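Comment on this:
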Amino acid sequence: MKFNKIKIILAALLLVSLVNPLFSKSVVIKGTVKNAQVYPSIYLFKCFGAEIEKIDSSKLVNGAFEFKSKESMLRGFYKIGLDDKKNFTFVFDHTPLKMEADMTTGELKVFESKENEIYGKYSAINSWHSAEFKKLDDKAQSYMPLRDTDPAAFQIEIGKLLQKLDTVNRELRSKLSVLVQNNKTTFVAKVAEMFISYDTTTQDNYFKKVEFLDEEYARGDMLSNKIFVFLQKYYQQGDMKVASFQVLSKCQKLNANKEIAYASLIRGIIQQDQEYARTLSEQYGRDFPNSKYSKFFLDNIPKGMPKVGDIPPDIKMKDTTGKSISLHSLKGKVVLLDFWASWCGPCRMENPNVVSAYKKYKDKGFTVFSVSLDDNKNKWIAAIKKDGLIWENHVSDLRGWSNEAAKLYGIRGIPAAFLLDKTGKIVATNLRGAELDKALEKLFSE
């Protein structure tokens, strides 16, 4: 449907990350951090595709910090921050950098740096486009009721919005082109050029060879995002195996770029074809056997829904208080992994049986790990209280059917439950009522 084009185009244009072929013999980054009283240190991170990796630390002395590294660093985007969530992106440009960060306002100032000045202009262009897109998207949403009541009128109005979108995108192309032309030697211009879409752009020439050969493209999320948009734009309803081959065939070297290509394809494919995502992960592991990222995918993508005899993949998710809890941390106990939701009638009907089993066997080493497919925190918590689900392990990412654990486990309906023995192995699935009690009695009598 044409309306989907609006959603697809934005993803290609709001991207930040980078690196330049030049190297620095040493790194000197100084600055201050405001409103970080409880944090003793600040960290320097490098980008690897969509991931960030900690590479240095500096003690905060009255809010001041300094990074000095003897190792070479590529020019590009890096991050400084208190942890992997609270951080700021900046451009390292081979000159000593002085900066000031404010943890309350979320603002980072980098002084007397041409690259960071250009980055600010690039960010402003993207912010402008984001605002213009939102106006069109809000308008499109207001027309959605017409889709059922007056389809012809709906198509006319959406057509008008698509014309306006074309105008906005032409202006975006113009703004980015000017930025590139005026700053040809900078890496921000190089990244901006990467995402300029021309009328002659097709799925065959969407990528440039250099994007898979030059490893500076791996030092940020730009290649990851470009692959994601490629899948959305050209293969939304297509064959993901063909799409993967088209991307990987451009990777002529076993370098960081190919690693990022693998990871990006797997993340883009897993929701549609878990089995093929697993196959791609195995191929990734053969090409990069020492990669922690390939190992992560191999460990966390099951061969379809876990079955009896399997050690299921770990689930790490936040509880009702925001604390992260891991399923594998419960190894040593008998665990009922229970997928449910406050809005699920059959789940709520089964809850009394689970509560009864918990009370009966909790002192023997039994517990429940409940994964909620709710998208409303208040309703989730209210259901826990009302049904008397008194165990501690309640987690959810509040994304409904898009719950990451549910996708990882291939859950297609709830309630869905897996009974794990003390070694973490699945011994039974989808037990209900008396069947759960019998299985527990057998486990604890062995």
